[in-house]
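@channel anyone free to eyeball this complex?
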Amino acid sequence: MAKLNGNTLIETIVAMVVIIFCTTMATVIYLNVLASQNSAQKLRAFYLSKDAVQQSLVKKDFLDASTGVEGMKIEKTCKPYKGSTDLVCLKIVVTSEEGKKLWEQTEIVLNE
Amino acid sequence: MFKKYLRGGALYLAIFISLIIAVLLSMLLLHSYYSAIDFRKFSIRQSVHRNMYSAFNYASSESFEPTNEPLILDLYENQTDSVEIVKKWWGCYQVVGIRSSYKGISESMLCLTGTSFMKDTALVLTENNKPLSIAGKTELKGTCFIPKAGVKAAHIEGETFWGDDFIDGAQLPAPQQLPEINPSILKQFENLSTAASNADSLLTLDQLPAADTIKNSFLSKTLRIISVGKIVLEDIKFSGNVIIQSPVRIVVRKSCVLNNVMLMAPCIEIEDEFSGTLQALASDTILAGDEVTLNYPSSLILINKPVPDSTHKSIRVPALIIGEKCRIKGTLLACIKDGNFTNSIYLKIKKEAEIMGLVYSAGYMDIQGSITGTAFAKAFILNTASGVYEQHLLNAVIDRKSLSDFFAGGIIFKGKKANKIVKWLN
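replying in thread with the prediction:
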């Protein structure tokens, strides 16, 4: 009759502890890296910022404003560009609820 | 000696699985790392793109005067957002070139720019206390600025007015004067008519290479081809940043191909059936033969200060004549530097000719074809085989309603900004 090789309970428990430890460490590291990058939220902030610029151009609204969208805060600052009468320097800053800056963009637009 | 080994069969397996987890983790971390790099590049690309259009807006502003020299500008004075801007006149349009770069990523644009049209305006006449008489199948569609004497039907050349309404649109009082021509255009042409600047590459006609094709980018120096006598253009292809200049006359035969080039001479003659895109600047006469096709954006510009002829008995009348069945998309401009002689310039559009865009005459305008766009004239005149009629239109069409509001024309009026992209260049 053939002899079956097996592991003792202690061996199995030690192995499981090692595997669980490794998996936990891997998950924690990966989640931390993802959280620090926050790419999806930044990308959403980018599109919100682009939309804010577009709205300003369509409505010819070149006044400072602050709005909240999808849990983010959009701050718009407008000032004449280098003293010009027809150029506006439009700055958009999008921050998260925690106050972390997600996206910032500045551009010069014509105020016709 | 007592020796007892703890068996480690399951630990080998645990280490193996841990290694797999480590490999998977490193792959995920690498993915995140490259995603972060990609997002950073995306962010830089967006910044470069924004800077390019910001620079375009800056170049389109009133305060930015065209210059042949490139301008390097730090947009926000933070040493990172720098752009290079080139803006120069090209006929009645402006060439705008922008190059924006940051951290090894660059983007550039090169285009011909123009300005938006007066909305809904079909016709602007000056106040001359004479009614506008219309006959035949004349159509005026859009807002018309008409003298106080109004519009009336006429019966000339055996034709009476056919339509229901004189004007399909609003009728407003005519201004005393036409809008002022952009002094920059006049100045540009004065500069062009003098010797070539250092910014140009100069070639005489006999120095031209044997090749029949010359293509010069708008990013390069302007290639100015000159001659001391008459120039006849035939069986050649010129494209791009090229000015052909003669002190006497330029004749364009239908066998040549011209694309975006500029012609300068006192007299310019475009022969029948020619097709191309050009800007012609003359000081005495521009004559487009029959069935000439000038594609968008072309312009024929006649600017002159009238001089008495050799007998000092009369004034030689500068004329811009468009032949029958011509198709021109762009701008026709006939004006004179000395406002006291505005009667002595003549713009004629012959039968079945179709003009799309803007037509301006500081003197008389004779329309027998159609204009899809806007016409500005001091007064109308109608020359027929049987007589000359002042302030008459016969079978003329001026239709602003059929022209898209997105159509961009030349920057010929004072105070207008070059804020519309007319054509992308290379």
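from a first look: Chain A is about 45% helix and 30% strand.
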